[in-house]
């Protein structure tokens, strides 16, 4: 097959037209309704036991933001008027670059992992007082109350033993006790999407959906009348597990080789952890078809990084960045323009698909909470894809316009930078207000 025909075929497999987007949105809305009603659904619809903050929460609180292999602990001052100030921040990896420790591999134990985090909390906790601590734990959890969350299973390829099935608040409390840290009291545990929504809603009353488009992917929304309480409550949809999505052969290949085949299908098509891998596997197919020359680098997992995708996306007609990527990352220094064009076409199609799929799920959520789009909605988004990937936000907006037409003007997406951490602080302040 001619190079351009092959590339057209491969990129068409990643393309989603307006009708596809609407169909996905409708399927998403159905899954949402079924999940909320307790029927079998790919959407877990996990209750958070928290609704909007009042904006009046105040005081100095600690927040632990554990969402992947990097953890952040922050000390936040909430001013009681919708404002927050980060007073101190400590960031650290759970896996050392030099291999000296790794708390996220299959050999690691939960107690060691939480001891490591607890000791770091001890470094930042204010002395002489007991600070309420909010914990953003960004994995699917069965939440029993605002301060109790049982990990259902790890995502984002974390494999630490002895955490699945356990209440992460109890694990953290036990670790704080073992480490002698007695000036921080865990009072709330939330998902990062929930933290992002709390942060946005602290100062924007239109915010009712929040999403993470980063290493992982997930969305939550404010359910106006939750079946458990009959009152408003934020629901963590765990939308990364949505599965009514058209998978390509490349997606199926990636899924089969992942930690949890069959799970997190949407996440594996859209999130930062996997996008580079989708590009790599697509380029590997092109190599196998003879479109690219022999290339051992394409056997190496994660050889294609987020920053490579970004630089190819904004490449100019001379394809200088794509050439640099091929030469420096893949060791292919003598590609022709047609081959470089093929690489860029596939790269761009994969990035575009991510934004459009995510937008379709936002549309499905809006169809549930406000079918006529009578009100204004802010969708608060955090994560590197939304923040840094060229065109990502614009592509989401474009897709929403295709689905809703003129009414899409009622919907805006906003960056909620560091929302997940500050949200944990807000949740801690909400909990501390409820039971001082
Ligand atoms: C997790 C979610 C989380 C998302 C974004 C997913 O892998 O299952 O709980 O919200 O990543 O961090």
Number of DSSP E strands: 13
Low-confidence blocks of residues? none
Structural class: alpha/beta
Secondary-structure element pattern, one letter each: HHEEEEHEEEHEHEEEHHHHHHEHHEH
N/C terminus separation? 70 Å
Beta percentage is 15-25%
Give the count of helical stretches.
Answer: 14
Instruction: Kindly provide the radius of gyration, computed on alpha-carbon positions and rounded to a whole number of angstroms.
Output: 22 Å
Strand order of the largest sheet: 1-11-10-9-12-13
Largest sheet: 6 strands, mixed
Q: What's the pLDDT, averaged over the residues?
A: 95
Account of the 3D structure:
This protein is an alpha/beta fold and 436 residues long. 42% of the residues lie in helices and 19% in strands. Helix 3 packs across helix 4, helix 6 crosses helix 8 (272-288) and helix 11 (337-369) packs across helix 13 (392-404). The N and C termini lie far apart (70 Å). 49% of the residues are buried. The structure holds beta-D-glucopyranose. Beta-D-glucopyranose is lined by residues 67, 138-140, 155-156, 191-193, 212, 216-218, 238, 240, 267.
List the helices and strands and how they pair.
Blueprint: H1 3-14, H2 18-36, E1 46-47, E2 58-66, E3 70-79, E4 84-93, H3 110-124, E5 131-137, E6 141-145, E7 148-151, H4 168-178, E8 184-190, H5 192-203, E9 207-213, E10 217-223, E11 233-236, H6 249-256, H7 265-270, H8 272-288, H9 306-313, H10 320-328, H11 337-369, E12 377-382, H12 384-388, H13 392-404, E13 411-415, H14 419-434
Parallel strand pairs: 2-5, 5-8, 9-12, 12-13
Antiparallel strand pairs: 1-11, 2-3, 3-4, 6-7, 9-10, 10-11
Helix pairs in contact: 1-11, 2-11, 3-4, 5-14, 6-8, 8-11, 11-13
The structure holds beta-D-glucopyranose.
């Amino acid at each position: 097959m001619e190079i351009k025909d092959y590339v057209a075929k491969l990129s068409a497999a990643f393309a989603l037209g307006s009708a596809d987007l609407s169909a996905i949105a409708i399927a998403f809305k159905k899954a949402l309704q079924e999940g909320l009603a307790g029927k079998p659904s790919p959407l877990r619809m996990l209750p958070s036991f928290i609704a909007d903050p009042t904006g009046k929460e105040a005081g100095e609180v600690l927040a632990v933001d554990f969402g992947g292999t990097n953890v952040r602990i922050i000390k936040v001052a909430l001013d009681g008027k919708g404002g927050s100030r980060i007073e101190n921040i400590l960031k650290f990896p759970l896996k050392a670059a030099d291999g000296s420790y790794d708390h996220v591999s299959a050999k690691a134990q939960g107690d060691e992992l939480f001891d490591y985090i607890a000791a770091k909390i001890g470094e930042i906790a204010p002395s002489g007082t007991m600070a309420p601590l909010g914990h953003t734990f960004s994995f699917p959890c069965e939440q029993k109350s605002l301060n109790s969350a049982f990990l259902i299973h790890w995502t984002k390829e974390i494999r630490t033993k002895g955490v699945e099935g356990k209440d992460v608040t109890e694990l953290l409390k036990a670790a704080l006790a073992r480490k002698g840290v007695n000036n921080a009291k865990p009072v709330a545990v939330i998902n990062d999407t929930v933290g992002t929504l709390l942060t946005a809603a602290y100062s924007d009353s239109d915010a009712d959906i929040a999403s993470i488009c980063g290493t992982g992917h997930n969305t939550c929304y404010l359910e106006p009348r939750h079946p458990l309480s009959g009152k408003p409550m934020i629901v963590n949809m765990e939308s990364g597990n949505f599965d009514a999505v058209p998978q390509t052969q490349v997606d199926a290949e990636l899924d089969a080789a992942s930690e949890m085949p069959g799970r997190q299908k949407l996440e594996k098509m859209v999130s930062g952890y996997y996008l580079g891998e989708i590009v790599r596997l697509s380029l590997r197919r092109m190599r196998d078809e003879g479109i690219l020359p022999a290339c051992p680098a394409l056997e190496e997992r994660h050889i294609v990084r987020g920053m490579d995708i970004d630089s190819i996306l904004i490449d100019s007609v001379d394809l200088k960045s794509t050439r640099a990527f091929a030469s420096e990352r893949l060791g292919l220094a003598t590609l022709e323009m047609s081959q470089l064009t093929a690489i860029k076409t596939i790269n761009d199609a994969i990035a575009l698909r991510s934004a459009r799929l995510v937008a379709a799920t936002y549309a499905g959520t809006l169809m549930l909470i406000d079918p006529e789009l009578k009100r204004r909605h802010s969708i608060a988004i955090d994560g590197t894809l939304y923040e840094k990937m060229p065109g990502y936000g614009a592509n989401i907006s474009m897709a929403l316009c295709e689905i809703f037409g003129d009414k899409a003007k009622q919907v805006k997406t906003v960056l909620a930078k560091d929302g997940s951490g500050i949200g944990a602080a807000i949740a801690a302040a909400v909990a501390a207000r409820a039971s001082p």
